[in-house]
Structures are given as C-alpha cells and as structure tokens.
Amino acid sequence: MRIGIPKGLLFYKFGELWQARLRAAGLEVVTSPSTNPEILEAGLKHSVCDLCLPVKVFFGHVHALKDDVDALFIPRGVRTEPDSYLCPKFIGLPDMVRAAIRRLPPVIDTEYNVKERSDEDFWKEVFAQIGHKIQKTEEINSPYPFCKDKKEDSEETERQARAFSVGVAGRPYLVYDNYLNKGIIRHIRRLGIEVVFQTPSAEYIRETMDTLPKWIYWSMAKEVVASVRWMIESEEVDGIILLVNAGCGPDSFMTELIERTMDIQKKPYMSINIDEHTSDVGLQTRVEAFIDMIDRRMKTKAL
Amino acid sequence: MEGYLGIDVGSVTTKLVLINREAEVLWSTYRKTQGQPIRVLQGALSDLYNDLSPRVLGVGATGSGRGLVDHLIGADVVKNEITAHAVAAIRHYPKVQSVIEIGGQDSKLIIIRDGVVVDFSMNTVCAAGTGSFLEHQALRLGLRIEELGSIALNANAPVRIAGRCTVFAESDMIHKQQMGHNLEDIVAGLCEALVRNYLSNLARGKELREPILFQGGVAANRGIRAAFERELGKEIIVPRHHNIMGAIGAALLALETTPPESRFRGFSLARHRLVSTSFYCDDCPNTCGVIEVSDGESVIARWGDNCGKWSSALGS
Q1: Total tally of structural domains belonging to chain B
Q2: Is B82 on the interface with A (CB under 8 A)?
Q3: Helical H segments across chain A, by residue range
C-alpha cells in the first residue's frame, strides 16, 4: 500500500511526524516534490474558486501525486490546540480537493481535532480508514521539523557575513516553501544576512494573547503574532520581515493587528504580501532596500 | 574629463548621468526605454561619448533593469531604486524627511530621519497609481502627458474619480465625460485620484514630515504636486533633477565606493550589434527563463538561471 502526502499546508507542521507514523505501520509513504512551476500551474488550473495561494498550490501537489499512489493522506485539520481553530479552508480541505480534482484515489480525511479526541484515537481512525491494524509505535514528536536550517542553504552565504540578522515570520507553509515564497529566504542569505525563524512555545503564545485587546481565534495566526512579538523583543534580531500570502483572510487581520498594536517602530519592519503574480525583481528590490536600510542605520549608530 | 556614471534603467524610461568627484551633474539624459533597454543604453552611451568622451571612474546601476546594465556594461555598484533615490535626496537636501517617488510602473515612499532611511513602502503588482496610468489616460483624452499638469491647474471643481484600479478609473472618467464635465475638472480629478491611491496604499500608518521631496518622472506634473499639497496640507519640493534622481543616486554610490579599477566595459560597446535571445531551460522543473546577449557570433552575457549553470558556463 502506497500512501501519498501532498507537500503543502499542514505538511509543513506535521509532515515528518505523519511520515514516520505511517511508515512505522509498515506502509510505503511518498510525498509530492517541493513546489515547482508545474505544481503551481496545475494548482491554479484545478483550484475551485478564489482561494488563497497555498491552498491553490496544495491542489497542484495533489495533482502531482494522485496517479502514483493507492491513497492520499489529507487529514481534516480542525483544531491543533483545544481552544482555537484552524482556518475553514483547512477544515474543508479534503472536500475541496475531492470536488476540484477528478479520478482521485481514496482520500484519508480523518478529522484532526485535539479537543474532541486523543492523538491515539486520531491514528486509530486513520488506520481504520486505511484498513490497517494499528501498531504501537514509540512517541514521535517533532513539531516544525522544517525550522532547522538546511545546510546546503546556509552554504550559499558566499559574500562576507554582515553583522546582523533578520527575523522572518509567517505561516510555516509559506516561510519554509522556497518556491512559494519566491526564494526570499535564499535571497536574504545571499546578501550575507542571517535568517532567524521562531516557533513560540504555547506559554509564550498565551502571554502574547494577553497583551492584545482580544485573543486571536485562529491557531496559526496566534503563532505568527507571537513570533513577531518575540522578534521585536529579541536581541538576536535586527529587523523583521512578515510574509503574508495574498488571499489569506486571517492574515489580512493579523497584519493590521501587528501594525496597530505592537511596538514595530522599535526595529526595521516590513510586511511582504506574496501572490502568484509577485515579480521576483520587485521582491528583490524590497528585500535589498530593507537590508540596506538596516545596514546604513547600524553604521550611523556605530559612528 | 572624468566622472562617475549612474545608470537607471526603469520600466518606462532610461536615465544616465555623469557626475564629477564633487557630485555635480556634468551630463545627463532621460529617454524612453521603449521596451528596448539594450538599444536605448547603447544610444545613450554613444551620445555621452560624442559629447564629452569622459574617462569613467566607476559605474552605479539601479532600476528594474539594473541587472541588465551590470551584465552588459559592467557596474561597480548594483543597488535597488529605494536606496539610490534616498542617497540622492539626502545628498541634495540633507534635511529631507520624506521622499515621494512616482515612476513609470511603480511608486515608493521613503521615510528618512537624521539622514538615514528608517522606513519605506513600495506599491506592489498594480500600476494604478503610476506614470503609465497617467500616460494611458492622457492618450485616451488625446493629450500629451506634458500637458496634463497645467490643464489640471485650471480646474474649478475636480470631479471625483475612482483611482484604485485603472479599469474602474477609465470607466469612471468616460462616465464623467459623458455627463458633461469639462476636461480640466476631469484631469484634475484624475490627479487627485492618483494621489489618494498613493496615500492610502503607501503612506498608511506612516508620518510624512517636511521637508517632503517629490521625485520621479511624474513629479513634472504640476497637477499631481498641487493635489499632494492640498491633500497633505504641506509643501512639496520638486528637485531640479527630479526625473534623474535615481541615476544620480547610483552615481553617488559608485563615487562612495571609489573602485580602484572600474568594471566598466568601455564605450565601444555602443557600436556593437547586440542581439538578445531567451530560452527556457528544461533540465529541471524550475524551467528558468535564460536570457542571452550575443555580439555577432559570441555570447557576451547570460543570466536568469537559478542554478548558475548557464551563466557560469560563459567563463569570462
């Protein structure tokens, strides 16, 4: 039995865990390739209506896998923590995929809802859907496996290292997908700048929520806002870039919330909105100007 | 004669300046790119050579075509337009605190405090608030772009036009024309729409303190300047070299670095027959578009590939 996992959205949070768990049960697991122009193109062609870019791209990943696997693993992401929800597009993802793409293999669409059921029950149902007996596996827990800097990436830092670092905040499926984010991370590193990511702890997120006029409703947005707060306060970060993808409902609120209620004046800050039309040149111009700004600012301070 | 060359290849216009060590402008040109940046660059270089035959001490490139300049002519500094515009503004007006720049396809707002850029914003994909939009509307009204500003100044009651999107703006303008509004009021309304669009997109949450400079090709339009002044209630300064400030900034950056030996390939390049072609590399799913410039039989520059396979195959 060959199970395919599309490399998008929640994959960037749970992908490593999912693969390990399914493999431990004796299943063959494959993922789609990293996002590339073909996948983007297929995604745009198959998406049902005006969705956000990462969801469109997810359809492209499904398309790249569907003829090659016996089943697709697309859990219905409802809650990743007890007191808030994921965006409705995650909740409806398996249905949208089924509606949009024809001739699909069976879709394993088990609901992931930590309030309603335990992790164990989730996997029980997954394997029930697959038709496999559950096999006890040791606890595999590695949230955000993609935060780790990849070696080959950092080796691209050829030019002399400048003495500062930039924090990049945003949803994991945008920040860690190097094609979807137009290679912005690679571009910053090429300029000799260190890139800092941050995944805040549950406690830090709660603390951050208490500083806001009101708790945020969506789990991923909470993480983004908390990571921006950490970057504002951290000594390790000299400037902050917030990545937002066009068509993201929650983030259109988050960007406003961050800019209005948080102390972004404290450090150079820039938000970049990415969609499929974003030109590389325009993006590079802004990134370079941002880095120049920090550089010149620091030089004047040093004088 | 010797100096530093600043080249700004924008989407709509190409600007070249030569400055001396004291940062004075010795020579400058401002011409349409007309979709043929290579030919326009060659023409400008050849004119500079015929006028002054200067010794070039350094080259700075900026604008969306800065990579092209670097590959073709050889640049010592390749910088984004925001830094270039800010550098030129600060040099000419050390006290400047805000720079409004509106070019052919993009617009920028740069916030400066104590001679250092502290914040900026740039319009994204849409060209609704830029020079191309104005030019298109001028053409549709049968006017020259240069006339728009003075016509706008003669308006009594500017009409309200939706400036958020060129498509809506155009239908709105046609509608107002058919209702019988006069040309002056419509043109003034257009200027106001552009300014409103600029301020709501770029200036949101930013404080525009004086002195405020207005740079870029659109700064020549007195109607837009007046609309900015009305909307902000502040004085807007249009520098003498407003339309070549980016190129001046690039030249200043070259002067700042004072390369021991410039990478400038020489004026002879202007006489060569350069042909550019492009292809998509199919070796991996990235399908990079590779651009190749050849001089007769030999390929002199190649770029656009992510992995560097094609550009590095060229050698020196």
Answers
A1: 3
A2: yes
A3: 11-24, 37-46, 53-65, 88-91, 93-100, 119-130, 151-154, 172-175, 184-190, 202-211, 219-233, 249-261, 280-302
